[in-house]
Amino acid sequence: MKYYVGIDLGGTNTKLGLVDESGNIIFTTIAKTDSIEGFSETIKRLSNILKAQIETSNVSFSDVKSVGIGVPGPVLNNRIVKFWANFPWKNGVDLALEFEKNLGIPVKADNDVNVITLGEMWQGAGQGYKNVLGLAIGTGIGGGIIVDGKLISGLNGAGGEVGHIKIEHNGKLCGCGQKGCWEAYASATGIIREAQSRLAVNKQNLLYKMTKGRDLEAKDVFDAAKQGDKFSLGIVDYEAEKLALGIGNLLNILDPEIVVIGGGVALSGDFLFDKVKEKIKEVAFPSTLETLKIVTAKLGNDAGILGAAYLGMQG
Amino acid sequence: MKYYVGIDLGGTNTKLGLVDESGNIIFTTIAKTDSIEGFSETIKRLSNILKAQIETSNVSFSDVKSVGIGVPGPVLNNRIVKFWANFPWKNGVDLALEFEKNLGIPVKADNDVNVITLGEMWQGAGQGYKNVLGLAIGTGIGGGIIVDGKLISGLNGAGGEVGHIKIEHNGKLCGCGQKGCWEAYASATGIIREAQSRLAVNKQNLLYKMTKGRDLEAKDVFDAAKQGDKFSLGIVDYEAEKLALGIGNLLNILDPEIVVIGGGVALSGDFLFDKVKEKIKEVAFPSTLETLKIVTAKLGNDAGILGAAYLGMQG
């Protein structure tokens, strides 16, 4: 049996896992990333944790064929991290090479949402499909585009940066500094912004009562809406409309078989997606909707490890 | 030497050509499509014209290896035309099979703008690139997306239907029946609509004088603007802004190496594109612009034949 390492490199924690060729997870472990100690030192420590963990398993290191890594940032040629989001590391470093030095087997890296989408295609909600649009809707909106089984990473590693398509000219300010980005409207942050803006002029609602005296979360809006709060239902409608606008645009460009949506906002499931499917008819080309599936991601925290393992496996 | 047929099937005329493996055009000929005579009859007649033309050339039919066809409509599996734009033919017919019956060699079909983009990549403005976004901006806006040398045709043949991404919620009515489509703003038709709308309230300008008593064309707007007409320059700015909005969105999704723009609007060249390049900075992710080229298509009327020949050649 052949085995593959998947690593989900995060700003705070790094998940490391070993997967067999059928997608069974042999182990996963979590380590503090502690990127502050420096690029080479951190990679060395994480590599040692990985090797130690493999030694305590029943798998021989010689049966481990490759390593895949998901990274929060754009990656060039499956090796170079163009820039790091929330890491004090130099931009443009060869992350794959650094792991290869320590582990002695081939390493491939890609953007984390790209990797998650691969995982969902291999073992999750996208199983059986080769043309998959993956969306991670949380603080921002990330995208992974798979065509014919392969990721579109783009010339500058910016393929799938769908959170920054503009859905309104000179619209809401986005964290990226530009205006009118999709994620400024349809991410969890976008929901919170819209809710706060509406609450400033309307306090006669359940959402206000529920969240008085504490920070509002996107989940609160869905919870209040599910209890019938009209005010919150209006915000969910707004969210569905903005989601439909971005997804519909992507359908017109990519015409995929399935859209797999993960991240915090996806947890509201069909309560939100049923509205999205209705509103998307005004945006997407009818033929793109004929057999399209829009589903919730299934793998949760394991998506990053499984996708990274699969990335390495693709050779 | 091996030879390849390229066919550009149009509503009025059909261009047929023979190309060698290096992209040299042996001949091209134009025939009336006359689709009214029926699907099988038209294909048979066009096939006979092609065979007769090859006989009068120095090429033996046995050296002709394949046929490629560009079609105004979405094509499934390089064979089936999902629906015909402006043809009285049944939707869902196997166009490739019908030509194969008459010609006895393998046939592949794809959407016409997809095929043109292939042609520009092979022999035109996109030569040397493998990740190309092709745009045809005329009456509408069509798109062809090539990733790693291969077209993204989409599950329903709707890949690259970029003219119908929405750039404004509940915006201008589009010919497709939906609202806010990119082509409702940035196509030649979009320019004419905007010019007519502005002319209704301002007749103190060169454009009005130039076009009084006849139909206005998009070209008039550029001609007047080049002569310094402020009114027309305002419309060109509008066009540049809308073009930048759509192209910028596509860059954030696909991150290509080069954008090749054809169609009537592209004839205005750098006069328009320089403004687009300026405005696109507010839309596209900065990393997608680092090495990006935006250029005018080079092949003109030959793009369809060369691209179709190359489509068939790809086997």
TrEMBL record, chains A, B:
PROSITE patterns: ROK (PS01125)
GO MF term set: ATP binding; glucokinase activity
GO terms under biological process: glycolytic process
Gene3D superfamilies per record: 3.30.420.40
Pfam families documented for this protein: ROK
Any one of the GO CC terms: cytoplasm
Enzyme class: transferase
Keywords: ATP-binding, Kinase, Nucleotide-binding, Transferase
EC number: 2.7.1.2
Family: Belongs to the ROK (NagC/XylR) family.
Family annotation (PANTHER family): BIFUNCTIONAL UDP-N-ACETYLGLUCOSAMINE 2-EPIMERASE_N-ACETYLMANNOSAMINE KINASE (PTHR18964:SF149), ROK (REPRESSOR, ORF, KINASE) FAMILY (PTHR18964)
Name this protein carries in UniProt: Glucokinase
Source organism of this protein record: Leptotrichia rugosa
